[in-house]
Model the fold of this input.
Amino acid sequence: MVTTTAPAAGVWGTIWQGITRSTSGFIGLCLVLGVLFFSFVGPLLIDTHNPTDVTKIWGAPSAEHWLGTNHQGKDTFTQLVLGGREPIWVGFVAALITVAIAVVLGAVAGYVRGRIDHFLLQLTDITMTIPFIVLMLVIASFYRTSSPLVVSFIIGLVTWPFLMRSIRAQVLSLKEREFIEAARLQDLGTARILFVEVLPNMAGYIFINFIIAITNAIYAVVGMYLLGLLPSTADNWGLMIQQAWDNNAFLLPQAAPFLIAPMVMIMLFQIGLVTMTRSLEQALNPRLRDR
Amino acid sequence: MIDHTIDSNEAAGLAHRADTAAHHRAEPPVLTLKGLRQTFKTPRGDVPAVAGVDLEVRPGQVLCLVGESGCGKTTTARMAAALTEPTAGSVLFRGKDVAEMDRTERAAFRRSVQYIHQDPYASLNPVRTVYSTVSAGLRRHKLVASHAEARRVTTELLERVDLVPAEDHLDKYPHQMSGGQRQRVAIARALAMNPEVIIADESTSMLDVSIRVSLLNTLGRLRDELGVGFLFITHDLAVAKYFAWQGEIAVMYLGKVVERGTAPRVINDPRHPYTKALISAVCEPDPDLVRKERVRLRGADIPDLTDLPSGCDFHPRCPLYEEGDCDSVRPPLVRGHDRLLACHVATRR
Done:
């Protein structure tokens, strides 16, 4: 006889338990929260006025300018604080769109089958053949002032097919399980069975793919800035790397912070997200939660 | 413990109970299977998994379907629960063909005929708590008005299936429970629909023997107190005898019913050679109680469903085989004085 009692800590307690169980996962979470704090709360705490100063071009790090100044004499640290919002925001929205489309279409295709499945699979094939970079080039040349939101929509709308296919495959297998048949015997209705009985069994998988989608979208948006596909005047890590590249910062030792700092921030955030998924899986799976 | 030896006193008492059961049999059947057939198309040829089965399940009665693996028991059960469509024949619920039902009638059928799977490890959703699993139907069909009522009704259902203290189990996940407890949850979920018929497909075969008896007792109480009719599928004659003693037993072989009658008659006085072989094959732990010699079959191999023998399906293995009808004419299921029997030789005797 198993005498385990239900955890009394409540939803947040069990999630906290799951998150702190794995050390690397917890470090990942701290990294993510740290970068988020830096990028979203940071701008409220510092003086965001960052004028061009021709007397301080490529200044070395000092007490006044912690990370030195850039090719226009602007403070690098201020730019770094202001530059995180856009890529993170774009990454989050793009991942949300991608995962939402993939989950809904994948679940419906896998569960309903028939002509809907056939049509949706054709749609994924077509979407997968869209060359992403070329599409961005075309859009960027038509709309010179693409907003971050438009960018995230485009990323979201072209990257869903891969996840959709794997979710469809999992639903195909899950729907044949006996507990789904039991739910059908209870006449629970297709929508409820699909979204309440089937999908929660994949919650961990979906969530981890959401995190991976964020990292992919961030790389995509930073890459586009780096290639100069997205003309933006706002401060942003991707743009900083591009400007450093354009101004040959890699040849100047005193310009190193301007080149390296945004790369380090992006890497810290991505490493944090990926290691965080490990504990999230434990937190979302009731079987792993109690161990 | 379940065994299949009965002393004379007990037999007399059971016979009396069986007569009372016969008295009840006047009630109209709630679930009727008529000429049910299921033929699976495979590259090797058609597989007639179920080849014409007629059965009735009456309220508060048990109909036990026994037979060896692959004889079509589960396929029959799934067709009876409308989980698969029969190739031919029909399932009647309260006299109405399930295939011709409209939406409302079908919904009523769906809820009134519940099915309990064999494997309690697969039939419960691992991410839902016991409360969530058992109350899903109640909440969906607005059988409860509030969350508090849902919890109360769920608690009552768990108590009804002897999962006590019920409050301790409400918020458990399936992985925190044993196989027997999970199967009780599956039964409570079926009961939540207030069913008239429960189709139990080998529902106790995955459980330990000691737990099996107590689960059978629980099911027996549901049958007696709630008047639920059972279509009970098992390969274990000891279980059939224990649970269906006041009901009927139908023995299936290769997709057909070969013998059907009240449980005491089929168990104590089997007439069909296949039933005799099944009964003599039940394990008996006490060597002193092994009185009869095992029925010896002429062959151990079950014929291939795609290539059935001519005449009686059982004749290549049958100890009573006689040349003539047995290998040329398929014996029909005919009514004898106390049972239905499909055997040329046994019917003549």
